[in-house]
Fold this sequence. Notes:
Chain A is 29% helix and 18% strand. By secondary structure, chain A is an alpha+beta fold. Chain B is mainly alpha-helical. The longest helix of chain B is centred in the first third of the chain and has 22 residues, at 107-128. Chain B starts with a helix and ends in a 12-residue tail after the last helix. Classes of the chains: A alpha+beta, B mainly alpha. Strand 7 (248-249) of chain A pairs antiparallel with strand 1 of chain B, so a sheet runs across the interface.
Amino acid sequence: MATSEWASDRFGALADDLTHIVPRAIKRAHEFAAAAQGSSGTHHRDPYGHTLKNTQHECLVDALSGTEGVQVFQPRGASFELVRLMATRVTLLPWRYGTNRKASRLKVRMKPSGLRRDLLAGPKGNPNQYSIEQADLSEAEIDAQLAEHDAVWDQLRSLARVVTIGYASSPHGIYDLGWGAVELLDDDGTIDWLHWEPLTVAADASDSDTGSEGGQRHLQAVKTPNEAPRAPGSRFDDTDFDDDLPMRPRTEAGEPQHEIEPPVEETGTGDDGPTDEPR
Amino acid sequence: MSPADLEGSDVHDRPTLVAIAKTFDSSRLLQARRLAGLTKRSVAADTGVSPAAVGQWEAGTTAPKAHHVARLAELLDVQPAFFAGGRRYVRLDTSDAHFRSLRSTPAALRAKAIAFTEQVWELVYVLETRVELPPVDLPGFAGGEVQPGSWAGDPVAAARTLRQHWNLGDAPIPRLVRTMERHGLVVTLVPFAGDATKTIDAFSTSHLPRPIVVLTPDRADDIYRHRFTAAHELGHLMLHPDTAPGDPVHEKEADVFAAELLTPHDQIVPQLPHRMDLVELERLGQQWGVAVESLVYRCHEVGQISDSTYRRAFQRLNQLRHVGLFGRESVQGYPGEMPNMISKAFELAEQHGLSLTQLADQLKITRPRLRLLLGQVETRPALRLV
């Protein structure tokens, strides 16, 4: 499958690898969950869902941790870890949007947890509704403000991007898998797919078509922003600085002086005032 | 406990339990109990006396018996001689420190933080009898108190005064914490309350012969937040002789001070992009050692973005940072932002004959406790029974 422009933008040098690694990780997560379901002895699908909830994260982390340019982090308050591509500032978020073949990703809602709100929130406020602050502004000024708002929001999106790995599955198989950009629009869980690309789940786990050895594909190194060559003075500490502290062993006994003693003015020596000197 | 422990002095010439009980320093019990984070009730239960008795020991109306001293030392993880009178003790009150929020820090943790600060001071004092530390050089500070000069009530003027006084010029400050230490301020960054340390914000006090700034490890996972926090505490030290924990006016002034110290208005404003450009602001932030939010604030301050855009952008940036979506750089990668005056002073004293054990004996504390105060990680393997 040829790497799209969107995927190249989001994943940089890792784009080609990720089109294979991500489906394999989700497939592996599904297999763990299906095995848990199989050994549970129940017809209810809770074991599958509960297991997948964890394995989807764990398998992605296992597949990508240790790769140069990839950072694994635990979002505050979350019980799982996520993977971030440092060079492109992209975080991968797996989401099982459906539990059967009929599920349509365009019609489902996303349960809006605090984390999902933080990760996927769209622009706040209705741009078509005037605020009190805008009452005294001209139409042109309001248009300028809205344009500024949109521009800033676009920049915020590019500063920390989330790629949602969406899939529908049950213990019987994975029905749909892809990745894209989701925006969570409201507290009811209404979402907007800004982009979607399907991914192909390999028929077997060996993935011979990816050219990997033993199912483990060798990832290309990606330079993180911190490793990239920097222009002198581009970071605040890029400067000569004497790091030593002026300290030496004390040679005098007695109470330590914490401050530099100010010069003491002689008192009582003037001719025009009283002194304690005996006359 | 042997009979020899109870009478006279031991072979190491340490005071015996009886001698300690006779000169029992009630304030040391309060300090040790606060450090241990225990209530009077739990100390009483473990010592086999009533809570009222512990209250009387702390009030100094009665003294514990020798066997109580031994039990207290064991329970509160200090040497028995810790409770003996006659050692210099500079007492701090919780109202002597600039705590950001009284609501977010439980009273017991604040008390622990204060007792920790007292202990840091004692350590510094003992080290200072052997090593000449950089003299305190903070405008307005003299003899354990601050008297703001012409900058009183004006955080921008205070920051400019400090830059001038410390010859920082108008460039980015490359190593803020080391700069503070070079001017005699004591800075610490240790998990003094274990896992609970993260619930305590950084704080500072100017009510000791050396100002002390206590930075906390939870902010140290983000170098920019760490630097801003250190600058914020400097602001309190220069501006607020009278502490008013959680006072929003003081907190705001300390923030304004920090922003001006790290990014002087006259230097940073001409460098701000003419229209909102977060990528450019992030680059500028790296250059000056501040978070992008700080520069978004500056953009708003000079009217380059509207109120509503500022609010939304700030809220979203906070949201992203809160969840961990920004790659953060830990302070570990910036040695100049890690305090080292205390540990270096000990190294120097050690080279001239002071051992860790001797120092612990002088402070009457355990060696693990001393290692914590020195910022050393315990390297000995723990024995585990299986």
